[in-house]
Amino acid sequence: MPPEANWGPSGQSWPQPLRAPCGGPGPIAPLGAVPEGCAELSPKQLTQQALKACGQRSDWQGAVAAVGLGCSSPKSSALAMGACGKASRWPQALFLLHDCQRQDGVMCNIALSSCAKAQQWQRALGLLEEMGKMSIQEDTISYNCAISACGKALQSFTAHRLIEQMEGRRLAPSVVTFASAMDACNRGGFWQLTLTLVARLEAHSVEANEYIYDALIHSCALGGRWQQALVFLSQMSSRDLARSASSFHAAIGACGACGRWAEAVELLAELGQRRLAKISSYQVAINACGPFWQQALQVAASCASQGFGADLRLQTGLVAACEAASSWAQALSLFHGMPEAKIRQDEQSFNVAIRACANLELWANALSLLQSANDGKLSSVITYNSALKSCAVNAQWQIALALLKDAEERGIKRDKVSLGTACTACADQWQQALHLYASAGEGTSEFLVTAAALACAKAQKWQQVLVLFEALPKESRLGVELYTAAIDAYGRGSLWRRSMRLLGSALKAREANLATFTAAATAVAGEKRLWRQVLQLLRDVRQQSFQADAALFRLGVMACERGSQWQLSLSLFARLENLRALEPGGSGEARRPERDKVRAASREPGLGLFEVRSARIEAET
């Protein structure tokens, strides 16, 4: 192979190799005394013996030096490459492949394996492509290594495509191929891709083993398909495949993702019956209980009855279960009881305990816990973000800003969540919110913009809302609150067409609620000729399975009145009256003056509903 060969995709070149300790070709430092019984071996055999010894010790430097003795062969180079791969020295493995005068498939596969171990997926793909140019036939092992490299680098779709490439080259995927590809898809979070491989596995008559089923059950856990996970677990039993604790743990996780804590506990009991339960099994089951903290406590009691000692992860899981259920008193009690149980609290346990204080007026408790974490040097940006959340919930904007400054002084770099949460705490301080937005620079986020925009909207600063909204990149993912605020802001600026277009975008993104429709209706209700659009919005609300409220019907009445649609106005007003009658304390008699004036308006077009608003307000109070 010519030295200038470029094996990397997209014009990438291989890294410069690290030469042997002796500095490259030339005199090599002695490898030591010749072992007894090896005196009559040829130099080539001695080199291979030395290389095997280097491989066993992961001595990549000795292996490279041995190849430099001048008695190298494809087998010697392969042994040296194996030693480099075992020591995670993929650049040296690739150099040895490049430096050898005769390459073969075994050497290429060893180099691919080295790339896979080091997550060098692009190098692996480049080498796979170069094998064809070297007239070296790729085999199933070659692709298995490349798929493994993609999986470790979270390149799920690339791993999936490699199986298609194998089929195109008439290479039969093995059970290892599918297991590696499924693992790659799961690592990237693409559980749907994992399940699509089942049909291909069956098409190639590959019999699934324990690793295949483990990957399938893990994909169900990622996708929350607890029933399918239990089916796969049952199939393993019917096919006499050993069900490991890992298989059960994944199934328990799938049940937990769907809130099926009872099924998760049953699986834990089966693990115990099979004597496969570990303390990690109880940890997974507690996590599966989610906000059902009473059940989580029962699982912990069962763990103790089986002789397992106190465990940090298990106890933190209990605190998290209580926090998820907003049982802050129980969460803090469990957290503060950890030292008594001889469990040393860590950063994660502090984070969970502080999050539990993000309810009611517990911000002082959050600050106390943060101080304890700082004293123990256990705080991080996540710890501060948890404390900031408590400040945001309780509108403690001054303390939130002080926490940002304190984190900076401690060398803890704030992130997008930090700024967004602090900005949320400034909901009643729109100028402070804008200051935080400006301080973010290029590190802004949708979260931060939304918080700043809502603060401005609350202060009726609609121009600032639009400035913030229009500064967002087009590909930004917006939430329902920001859509609603922007639609309202456009309406207040008499830009009703933009309001309606934005409502369409919100519906397409499935980020609309009743308040979003009300904001859009408000934008068009004041326009004399747009009563049809308001009525269409009322119909759209029903199609979206929302229940129109009194505010939306009032806008419909107003729009029809301005458009001189008196019959429609009376019809909508009758529905408004029916809706009010269902409200607590609703009374038709109390609103008789308003009803009479609306009827009069229908007979006297000169009298508009804008003129009777004061009478309506008086009737409602």
Automatic annotation (TrEMBL):
Question: Where do the PPR repeats start and stop?
Answer: 104-138, 139-173, 209-243, 380-414
Under Gene3D superfamilies, the record lists:
Tetratricopeptide repeat domain
**Protein's recorded name:** Pentatricopeptide repeat-containing protein, chloroplastic
Q: Show the InterPro entries listed in the entry.
A: PPR_rpt (IPR002885), TPR-like_helical_dom_sf (IPR011990)
For the keyword Transmembrane, the answer is no
User: Lineage of the native species?
Assistant: Eukaryota, Sar, Alveolata, Dinophyceae, Suessiales
One matching Pfam family is PPR
Where in the sequence does UniProt note compositional bias of the Basic and acidic residues kind? 589-602
Q: Does the keyword Lipoprotein apply?
A: no
| Sequence segments annotated as region (Disordered) | 1-21, 584-603
PROSITE patterns, A to Z: PPR
The protein's UniProt keywords, in alphabetical order, are: Repeat
Q: Which residues cross the membrane?
A: none
